[in-house]
Every structure is written in structure tokens, then in C-alpha cells.
Amino acid sequence: MKTSSKKAKGRNLQYWVANKLAWLFNIEFVQSDDLCPIHSREMGQSGADVFIRERSMYEKFPYDIECKNTEKVSLYAFIEQAKSNTKEGRQWLVFHKKNRCKPVVIMDAEHFFEMYKKYMENANEQY
User: Fold this and answer.
1) Which residue in 60, 61, 62, 123 has a CA-CA distance of 20 to 30 Å to 91?
2) What is the domain count for the chain?
3) What is the domain range of residue 69?
């Protein structure tokens, strides 16, 4: 596969994630708009692959995102890259996709259980 095709696959996953984040925040994702609060990092640049520019949204979504659209899974290499791009006080997420499969999210297990416990506590308060 050509390098340009590989980069296009990666970019497509980044755009998919950015669109899903925009859906969560009820905004429109427009990559070409420099004022869009959600942005997909250009290929080859360092840092999180998808990031939130607007402070209030950034605080509500405490994750720094790494996207991988590959057939070969180097799980711990993906995680190490995500961790290296995660700012202090935030959590890392890896979105992985391979051909003809749905994207999946990889996250720290301890964080998952902490998050789910908070969710259950909030759900119990509502009843």
C-alpha cells in the first residue's frame, strides 16, 4: 500500500472520531474551519490526533486521542504513543480500526472502572 493511501486511511479515522465528538457536543465538525472547536491534527505532526480547542468542551471531555487505522495491531506500541501525547491530568484513548471492521476504543482499565462507578453513582441519585 502506498504511503499516501495509508495516510488517507488514518485521516479518515481521525475525521470519523472528530465527527463523533462533534455529535456529542451538538456542533458541526468542519476540518477546514480554523475556528471549529474540534480539529483533526495533520498527518505527521506530533501530539494527539484529534483535539478540542474550546476550553469548556476540553474540560468536559478529558481524553487525548490517538487514532490507528491498521491491519496489524501493535497494541502496546499504540498505547505508549497515546500516553506520550497525553497532557498531565488527562486520560489517553486509542481508537483502532482495520478494514471491514468497526472502530474500537482502547483505554486504561482502572480509569474505565472509576468512570463506570461514577456513572452508576449518578444513575442511583436519579432514582
Assistant:
1) 123
2) 1
3) 3-125
DSSP letters, the chain, are: --HHHHHHHHHHHHHHHHHHHHHHTT----TT-TT-SEEEPPTT--S-SEEE-SHHHHHHS-EEEEEEE-SS--HHHHHHHHHHTPPTT-EEEEEEE-TTS--EEE--HHHHHHHHHHHHHHHHHT-
**Which residues does the chain have with pLDDT short of 70?**
126-127
Q: What is the CATH number of the domain that holds 88?
A: 3.40.1350
User: What's the CA gap between 29 and 39, in Å, rounded?
Assistant: 8
Q: What is the pLDDT of residue 33?
A: 93
Q: Structure pTM?
A: 0.90
What is the Cα–Cα distance from 33 to 30, expressed in whole angstroms?
A: 5
